[in-house]
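Extended Data, panel c. Modelled sequence:
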Amino acid sequence: MGDDYPANRADDVRLSQRAVEDDDWIAAFLSRQPTCVLGLVDDGSPYVVNQLFVYDPAEHAIFLHGANTGRTRTIVERGDSPDASLTVSRMGRLLPAAMPVDFDVEYASVVVDGEIGLVEDPAKKRLALERIMEKFAPHMRPGEDYDPIADSSIERTSVYRIDVDGWSAKRNEKPPDFDGAYDYETVHDEDG
């Protein structure tokens, strides 16, 4: 894909005033968020699964990992449909209104489309897993705070690469003093 970003499909966003056309913002959002929902096609039926991920802006690729067995591995290995989508989102404050139909919510989200495949080369798998560790434990160092990734761990881990063909993003943000805005967590206890 070179140095250019993937195709920005902002025109696909229904509420055009919420569409994000800034590719740098999209790349930064993907770099900051911890989880995604990966969507694949399993024998003609949709299959979605939550995943940790890392976005590599230089390669315009998303890397995910999992066990060497399971449904995701089977679907990707079978190769019937290499098409993949994933969505990444962050919920902000709830925005009350007089009428329930007018309630709103702050959010930011990105939808990515591309082709998924297995990373087979052990060195490339190691690099992807190291990137994942850097993202999720940036305050820790391999060899100091935890053991470096062992060859046996690489052998028993599936690493997936999605080459990003296109993306779209949208967000809804209001001023900090929006009347009555509240966080979902503040009205629910941690067990609820």
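The mean pLDDT is 91. This feature is highlighted in the accompanying rendering.
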